[in-house]
Amino acid sequence: MRQPLFVLGLDCFDPVLAFDRWLGDLPNLMRLTQEGVHGRLESTIPPITVPAWTCMLTGKDPGELGVYGFRNRADYSYDQMSIATSEQITYPRVWDRVSEAGGTSIVVGVPQTYPVKPLNGIMVGCFLTPSTASAYTYPPEFKHEIAQVVGEYLLDVPNFRTEDKVRLLHDIYRTSRVQFDLVWHLLRTRADWDMFMYVSIGPDRIHHGFWKYTDPRHPQYTPGNPFENAIRRYYQFIDSQIGALLGLLPADATLIIMSDHGAQAMEGGICINDWLIEQGYLTLIDKPAGVVPLERCEIDWSKTTAWGAGGYYGRLSLNVAGREPNGIVPPDQVEAVKAEIAVRLQGIAGPAGRDIGTRVYRPEEVYAQVNNIPPDMIIYFGNLAWRSVGSVGNPSIQVFENDTGPDDANHAQLGMYVLRRPGDKSGRQSDHTWRAVAPTMLEILGMGVSPDMSTERLA
After folding, report:
1. Which helix (H) or strand (E) holds 30?
2. What is the full DSSP assignment across 39-89?
């Protein structure tokens, strides 16, 4: 190993806030940008926590991983879904390569690490872990040390889609402090690591819970509201933790701070399945009474061409003959149907009939491989300014309330990074893509880079 590497992951930490609006309020981050290299970091398609972190740590895109979001089609039936756990990952992540080389890693809270897998070192599971009653650490007995050090360990912010903003803000800080306390304990008591990586989910949760209170561009922003500075103060809290980290890191350690994507105002939602019904692509046997999830509706598959899924981006699946159980789209017509639907999707208007700038991607065009069961089309409504609403029975195609609970922000394609090597005083800015992350980490650790990885580096 060449030198130790510490990676602080800040889920959803936004470069517009961190670098453009508030850098002067973040002295430790500012110092690192002046000493090292920093810039925007373009995320995966889609820019979602799962699979973005795993893509950055393997060098593989979502299609190669066969993971397109938190929930994925398990097969070509209509209702079998699977949760994207660590068991779906077949490629080695950076710490796996470290273990193979005889090095030691400490991994805390990195998304898609539950169930935890053995490594040469310590692993603490991520926010997808059901609870601390499960085997959420490796080695298993390490959970007892956690209990002694921090008491009740918090894997995630509970119920972050809530109108109780006072409780939510308290829980975001409580979760963040507990996790950072564990990291500081590990830095003080373990000195033999080659790689140490911790991902904080706190920035993501505060963005989804408080964006409309901070961003004047949000349609529900009210100047002078009581939570107007909630996100800025949390960024200052994160900056104070970065300061503590700088005081604990070994002198020869390289530091990377990075996010998997950014954030932006969520202007509203596009009801993808209601739109498909309106356009004649999706047929229900009975019209629902009120707003209900599509899964609770009886679908006439003999008259259905496509159906969609909700989330921060839209996923559309075609009902293909010979592929789905009751498919009706002839295989030789699939591309034509995709093209027709894509044009119509891009024509969905926002308020006052304005073009919202929807983008449609086909997995086979954006991924090196397409494994497992991908959506047939990936949709960025309003280029992610609008979320996809999967429920049916909504009053209109455009809605301004989220069907999964209060949520102010959607993800943005650009995240951020800062790289500071020992003795570096360059203070440069250089923008990159997620593909630069894994090979950069491997080179810092003095390890070989796979020939199929990108030649791009964070530098």
Report:
1. helix 27-35
2. EEEE--SS--HHHHHHHHHHS--HHHHT--SSEEESSSSSS-EEE--GGG-
CB 407 within 8 A of CB 269: no
- Rg (the chain; Cα; Å): 22
Q: Beta strand 262-265 with 409-412: parallel, antiparallel or unpaired?
A: antiparallel
What is the DSSP annotation of 385-444?
TEEEE--B--SSSEESS-TTS---EEEESEEEEEEE-TT----EE--EEGGGHHHHHHHH
For residue 321, count CB atoms less than 10 angstroms from its CB and return exposed for 0-12, middle for 13-18, buried for 19 or more. Answer: middle
Distances (CA, A) of 261 to 296, 334, 403, 409: 32, 32, 23, 12
The CA-CA-CA angle for residues 319, 320, 323, to 5°, reads 110
What is the maximum alpha-carbon separation in the chain? Answer: 68
Q: Please state, for a pLDDT cut of 70, what percent of the chain lies above it.
A: 100
Question: One-letter amino acid identity for 97?
Answer: R
Tokens of 70: 């938190």
Contact 194/106 with Cβ under 8 angstroms?
no
CA atoms within 13 A on the CB side of 404: 18
Torsion over CA of 17, 21, 24 and 27, rounded to 10 degrees? 0
Q: Are 140 and 134 in contact (CB under 8 A)?
A: no
Q: What is the pLDDT of residues 296-348, one digit of tens each?
A: 999 999 999 999 999 999 999 999 999 999 999 999 999 999 999 999 999 99
Structure tokens at 226: 């009581």
What's residue 426's pLDDT? 85
Eight-class DSSP state of 106: E
Which domains occur in the chain, in start order? 5-266+411-444 (3.40.720.10), 268-406 (no CATH)
Q: What is the pTM of this model?
A: 0.97
Tokens 């273990």, residue located: 99
Name the nearest CA neighbour of 228 among 184, 290, 165. Answer: 165
Task: Classify residue 225 by its DSSP letter.
Answer: -
Could you tell me where the DSSP H helices lie in 190-296? 202-214, 230-248, 272-279
d(CA 11, CA 99): 25
The bridge status of strand 386-389 relative to strand 268-271 is parallel
Asked if residues 159 and 127 have their Cβ atoms less than 8 Å apart, the reply is no
Q: What is the mean pLDDT of residues 265-272?
A: 96
Whether the CA torsion 134, 136, 141, 146 is positive or negative: it is: negative
Structure tokens at 325: 């159980």
In the predicted structure, residue 403 carries a pLDDT above the cut 90: no
DSSP secondary structure letter of residue 93: P
